[in-house]
Specification:
Number of helices: 15
Distance between the termini: 47 Å
Helix content: 55-70%
Structural class: mainly alpha
Radius of gyration: 19 Å
Strand order of the largest sheet: 1-2
Strand content: under 5%
């Protein structure tokens, strides 16, 4: 049996930079969205900073899958009460933020989310003519996505219990950002391959990891339903339907709960009458 200390153990020294990066990103992006100052260039700049700093420099930090895999490790491989409390607090903060601002963490703070968003710009356009010219783009219904996500999460939980192993450590592509450190070890080669596969898939599928496989994505999709802060149409809306055509998660329709909205701002950029505003209700 392989215990949690034998596979990519959680380094609590990462907890501080994780929290600081997330807190700064959360405050900055929320202010920019609320004041309608999140321009296309600023959006791109924040994503690039997240990818370079969190992904390349820090090796995949913040990593929202990490507290989930550590939580599994406590139950599967054993752990102290202190480690259990610390993990629950970290996971609670991340999920709590989704109640306040939906999928903002996934949209801007997660380095893998940033990478997928940047790559998605190849085939998922905010300009209608450019959007319609794209031939190789795959749209999957939310119902099918939810089924795949639940099956994957269920398989992970079963394997974790059956093998007595933190299986998420092996298949977490966020760990692949540390390829330059120990690429020749099994527990880093597999995530690195996963990172490459997710990157290629992001050209054709919008955020495949976030929407189909990420365990934190599955949990935050539930908690984000409670969020009252989201993009909404105003009375100025002419029902032209342009936002619905370019929305990569198919959630631009009226009264959508926006559980899969990553604040990509394609709806904002294409709206001809500036009729989509952020509704702040704390």
């Amino acid at each position: 049996m392989i215990t949690q200390t034998e596979i990519f153990p959680f380094d609590y020294t990462f907890a501080v930079p994780m929290f600081l990066i997330w807190a700064m990103t959360f405050i900055l992006v929320m202010l920019l969205i609320d004041t309608e100052m999140l321009t296309k260039k600023l959006n791109l700049l924040i994503l690039l900073i997240t990818l370079v700093l969190g992904g390349i420099v820090l090796g995949g930090i913040p990593n929202a899958v990490m507290p989930i895999q550590q939580l599994l490790g406590v139950f599967v491989g054993g752990g102290t009460i202190l480690s259990l409390v610390a993990v629950i607090i970290i996971l609670g903060i991340l999920l709590g933020s989704s109640i306040v601002a939906g999928r903002l963490f996934c949209g801007f703070a997660c380095p893998l989310g940033a990478l997928q968003e940047l790559i998605s710009k190849v085939n998922f356009k905010s300009n209608l003519k450019a959007h319609e010219r794209v031939k190789y783009r795959i749209n999957v219904s939310q119902k099918i996505i939810s089924i795949i996500r639940r099956i994957f999460l269920g398989v992970i939980l079963v394997l974790a219990g059956f093998w007595g192993i933190l299986i998420l450590n092996v298949f977490n592509p966020l760990s692949g950002f540390s390829f330059y450190k120990t690429i020749f070890t099994f527990t880093f080669v597999i995530p690195f391959i996963g990172l490459i596969v997710i990157s290629i898939a992001s050209i054709f599928l919008y955020r495949p990891w976030c929407r189909f496989l990420c365990p934190f994505g599955a949990l935050s999709a539930l908690t984000s339903r409670l969020s009252r802060n989201k993009y909404e149409r105003t009375e100025a809306c002419t029902e032209c339907g342009l936002c619905e055509k370019v929305c990569p998660t198919q959630e631009a329709f009226t009264n959508s709960k926006k559980t899969e909205c990553y604040y990509c701002n394609r709806c904002i950029e294409i709206c001809p009458v500036n009729a989509i505003k952020f509704s702040m209700d704390l």
